[in-house]
Amino acid sequence: MKDNPVQEKSFAFALRIVKLYKYLGEDKTEYVLSKAVLTSGTHIGKHVKEASSGESRQVFISEMATALKKASETEYWLELLRAADYLDEKAFASINGDCQELMRLLTSIVKTSKQTAE
To answer: 2-16 burial, b for 16+ CB within 10 Å, e for fewer?
Structure first.
């Protein structure tokens, strides 16, 4: 993972999501939304990893685009958790900031990769 910032960031984000899932289940006894954010938030890194080992440029672009979709989905779940008062403003701002950073990075990678593939 070293020398691959998007892999490092997506892994670190997934770890934060796992800890959020644990917190929501143990402290807030919330199981439905927490499972949704766990799935989408950890799948970002899964798709980044798959893109890195893809056998073609098209597979790379497709996996990175899917990672971006999962990041967008995670953003939705985080916003819903905040609106439902499961996350306070400080916790939401911190983890959502990381999600936004990943989305910007993935957007840039997908756009650049599509342009160079043409």
So the answer is: eeeebbebbbebbee
